[in-house]
Amino acid sequence: MAILLNTMSDYKQKSFELANDAIKLVLTLATGVLAFTFTFLKDVIGDNLIVGKIALYIGWILLLLTIFFCLLTLLAIVGTMEDLDTNSAITVYEKNITRFAGSALILFFGGMISMVIFVWINFSPVKTGSNEKKEITDKRVNDTTVVIVSSTNPQLQLCIKPKSKKICTPTKTQLIKK
Fold it and tell me: Does 130 reside within a domain?
């Protein structure tokens, strides 16, 4: 009988270790994606016009929240494992663990979807209503960059970007007719 109880305790211990490893994986992925986008965004985008910044910002916020909830999950796992020896009814599916872990996973997938949307907006061919590609012209005048996005569509988007700024987004007031 003692061997059976010891084996059951080993299974519970192993389940907590696997949950711990799984949440560490999500934590590592979220941290890596966040660090990669912070570090290499300027190198990947270059001097091109960044479109869909809101998807990038939402992705960053969701990934930061993922990191926070992963840390809370790890703390909940440690706290629950502390009571494992005294209470045999405790499992890895306790609410204090599953709430934080579920939130971390939902936030992680939301953050990754936002990042995919940002990449898709910025790196897919830009098409107009008539399925024609737009042409982006970047002209430098002194310390200012003038970015012109044009197509066969009778509209021009003009954005004046000072040299000190890295991101230039055309606004509705900068949209003019040819």
Answer: no
